[in-house]
Amino acid sequence: MKEYVIGIDIGGTFTKYGFVDREGNIFGEGSSPTDIYDKVEDYLENLVKELKGGEKSLEGEYKIVGVGIGAPNGNFYNGTIEDAPNLKWKGIIPFARMVQKYYDAPVRLTNDANAAALGEKVYGGGQGIDNFIMITLGTGLGSGIIVNGDLVYGHDGFAGEIGHTNAVENGRQCGCGNRGCLETYVSAPGIKRTVFELLAHDSRGSDLANYSYNEMDSEMIYNAAKKDDPIALEAFEITGRTLGRKLADSVAHTSPKAIFLFGGLAKSGDYILKPTKKYLEEYVMGPFKNKVEIKPSQLMDKNVAVLGSSSLIWKDMA
Amino acid sequence: MKEYVIGIDIGGTFTKYGFVDREGNIFGEGSSPTDIYDKVEDYLENLVKELKGGEKSLEGEYKIVGVGIGAPNGNFYNGTIEDAPNLKWKGIIPFARMVQKYYDAPVRLTNDANAAALGEKVYGGGQGIDNFIMITLGTGLGSGIIVNGDLVYGHDGFAGEIGHTNAVENGRQCGCGNRGCLETYVSAPGIKRTVFELLAHDSRGSDLANYSYNEMDSEMIYNAAKKDDPIALEAFEITGRTLGRKLADSVAHTSPKAIFLFGGLAKSGDYILKPTKKYLEEYVMGPFKNKVEIKPSQLMDKNVAVLGSSSLIWKDMA
Hints:
2 copies of one chain form a homodimer. By secondary structure, the first copy, chain A, is an alpha/beta fold. Chain A contains 8 helices and 13 strands. In chain A, the strands form 3 sheets. Chain A has a 5-stranded mixed beta sheet with strand order 3-2-1-4-8, with helices on both faces. In chain A, helix 7 (270-283) links the parallel strand 12 (258-262) and strand 13 (293-296). The radius of gyration of chain A is 20 Å and the shape is globular. At the A-B interface, helix 6 of A face helix 6 of B.
């Protein structure tokens, strides 16, 4: 009988899911809205309905052997989602326990970026690497840190928040309540904020001057960079510089062999990778120089968090 | 037959050693100069002579069951000391292998701050804590990071260099070659540099204005603070602020339950602890607030690095 793990990746806008076999093939992939539900119970009821529908696409005899979930502010130890800034459901939500009611199989939950790191470890570029860092660049900057072959959860289950290290004293306002967090500079909204600062300070012409703040997205900035737009190019340089300087700190902490970048901004390729590498090398301490590889995730076009969530279950069934 | 591990802590000026039993009692403690030897071979020959002398103080029948060494830029994986800025011996020194010639027992080597972290874990405040950080404040700022109960060595054996994270862009010149490293602000010389900046910028009177740069040490600054000297008090505030702000980054990486401070500056008690706590709480991300304990090492008056070095051996003989 074929065995599947349900992998679920809860994002602020959409929830993605799939049925993952032991080899990392995803079947019955789907997507369900997250932010239209004011109550988590209603959200879950709809999600389970969609999952049961998705199951119908699975062929032959099969068994669901577990459910793995990646969620913002997900706590591995308790299976809870705790005060996630970009979800509507506040407080401490015992999400894994709620899902458990629907499935007679183990349910595990972790932070979404941790799930992505696990996906990279089991199915991507992190295979065979015992020390690496995964950076996910989207609406925010998520991170998962692998040390000695395992995810770093820390004392309370919340370790791996590189996006909320301080990049600039008294810097940009962050959704977490602090100022100057790395993700306010390095993320899709982060690079847009940098473009707007440059437009305000700079008198060079730019195609990007034609868009409102609400219209602009990071893909427009990437497209402008490809046409050698000076503001777009400088925004990428500044973004990579900020990321490289802070990743030098991360390297000093856990000395990874590699750092993988995933997500929208990472798809900009060398525009983001080159300055990140350059400034990491400039800021990192001597013994670490020219050792750390910075590269795109090998699962860039797959749903790394769905894969990673599923491996929360698969790794214990070796 | 009584069993001992030789614990060795190599510092820039002095090398400390002792014969440590399984319970963490140190016998035959001694100290030997480090910096008078231009050649590491001569240094080691003298050290072994002293150790053989020290053995004579051990009573009854005994056996040396291993040698544990903490050294600046010590690499656990290879047993090497690699380009340590504060030692005279340059290049990659296969120190563990050199010691092995004198002892028919396992020899292990790690970074001195890692050894201190291990000492805290096995014999001090870190007992029973699986995630904590040890900060040693001396001539530099050393750190050892414990994750999931084990030391973080990283890909190359050099992890745990929080002293060389970037505290100030284009900041003070560091011995490592970079600028703005945390240890140039938070260490015995670091707080002295801050006092000299304050004396230059400030017109309030201070006892500290009577000392040359070469005369002043951190104990004088501590003594002045106890007399409410405004420059000394502000220097401690600034030092704790810089440390607290950067430790907030460390917490975001590995989410420790506690951070232990060891060494000369840490002996200044609340003068350093209070601002460190205050600014860590200010800068740290919401989910980590009011969770992390910052406290002095419980082995403050003992040689934590000698104990820790010995536990490199003892922990494998459980």
